[in-house]
Amino acid sequence: MNMDHLFVNEQIDISNLPQADEVTWVPLNKKYLPISLLSTALFGLLLLSIFLVVNFVNTDMIEDNRIVFSVIGGVILLFVFILLISALGFKHKAYALREHDVLYKSGLIFRKTIALPFNRVQHSEINQGPIERKFNLASLEIFTAGGSQSDLTIPGLLNEDAQSMKAFIMEKASKHE
């Protein structure tokens, strides 16, 4: 039996690993915050409008106006809370491109950092809604094999930066095929 092909799995000393704090994070573009807040507010307004229309069209649904006003007040308070959390959490959203991967961090209460190695990337897309287009912003979505949804979405990028990042990531991904 040839001993040169034995499986070896050495333990790594975690104190020698690079620290995540050494990454230079790039914050999302500041123009994205009002767009994000506006989108959330419009969604809340839409839900509230649907509730009001259904309530006024079908007056038998809820006969007690106190319940209607309580629901309206609750929905408004919920969306004010969501807007506040979104605004405070915005400063914790950032990304970084490294030689072998792309990183994205987010979260105010529950923090999350995603690292996506370029050798796993299948394709990427740039998306712009009408409001984002007006402010020259875009979202970069990065997909890996085996999924129909993106594995990583970086919103709030200047369109030019999103285009450059997409080209860079796809070039790196093609070298691993």
Molecular structure report:
With 177 residues, the chain is α+β, with helices and mostly antiparallel strands. It contains four helices and seven strands, in the order βααββββαββα. The strands form two sheets. It has a four-stranded antiparallel β-sheet with strand order 1-2-3-4, with no helix packed on it. Helix 1 runs antiparallel to helix 2. The chain is elongated. It starts with 25 loop residues before the first strand and ends with a helix. The model has no long low-confidence stretch (mean pLDDT 86).
How would you summarize what this structure contains?
With about 180 residues, the chain is α+β, with helices and mostly antiparallel strands. It has four helices and seven strands, in the order E-H-H-E-E-E-E-H-E-E-H.
Largest sheet: 4 strands, antiparallel
SS elements, strand count = 7
Q: Architecture of the largest domain, according to CATH?
A: Roll
CATH class of the largest domain: Mainly Beta
**Total number of distinct structural domains:** 2
Strand order of the largest sheet: 1-2-3-4
Number of helices: 4
Termini, distance in Å? 34 Å
CATH topology of the largest domain: PH-domain like
Rg over CA atoms:
23 Å
Mean pLDDT: 86
Spell the H/E element sequence.
EHHEEEEHEEH
Strand content range? 15-25%
Class derived from helix and strand content: alpha+beta
Give the low-confidence spans. none
